[in-house]
Design brief:
This protein is an alpha+beta fold. The protein has five helices and six strands; from the N terminus they run αββααβαβαββ. The chain has a three-stranded mixed sheet with strand order 1-2-3. It has a three-stranded antiparallel sheet with strand order 4-6-5. The longest helix has 23 residues.
Length: 158
């Protein structure tokens, strides 16, 4: 993506937060695989992130719509991180997935994780995709959707 568009995105992100009364610094801004990644730093991360990242997701959705309408092509997505919240959350989810998968493999009993948004469920699925002794499945509807980790039954031919 051209540098001039990324610079316009940066200005819009700063302007968006300033209009909301927040002082932010854009630490990093890059484009990879149809996604613009924006890392910001602020003194008030809890307000911007919200409970379990819910406010951050809504800000990302709203800001993404504004940027698509004014600057970007339709198939470009926005991924925002505040004070490395998402990075830390992803690491935590991977560790949780491994711990629960080890327990499921050892005890042979499935275990359901708490409800989580789609992007968090995807992290769990990807973290365990290469494991031969467990499998994952999403169950439930809406805000109650969760990942279940199950022992994988071995075929006799294996």
């Amino acid at each position: 993506m051209r540098e001039e568009i990324l610079e316009k995105v940066k200005k819009k992100v700063i302007e968006f937060f300033e209009k909301g009364g927040f002082q932010i610094e854009v630490e990093d801004l890059c484009f990879k695989e149809n996604t613009i990644f924006v890392k910001i730093k602020t003194e008030e991360p809890k307000i911007i992130i919200g409970r379990n990242g819910s406010v951050l997701l809504e800000i990302q959705r709203l800001l993404g719509s504004i940027l698509k309408k004014r600057l970007l092509e339709e198939n470009v997505f926005l991924n925002m991180d505040v004070n490395n919240y998402r990075e830390k959350k992803e690491e935590y989810l991977k560790e949780l997935a491994e711990e629960v998968a080890n327990e499921v493999a050892l005890l042979g009993k499935e275990k359901a994780l708490p409800p989580m948004p789609a992007y968090e469920r995807r992290i769990i699925h990807l973290a365990l995709a290469q494991r031969r002794n467990v499998m994952t499945e999403s169950i439930g509807e809406g805000s109650e959707r969760r990942v279940v980790i199950k022992p994988k039954i071995k075929n006799l031919e294996d």
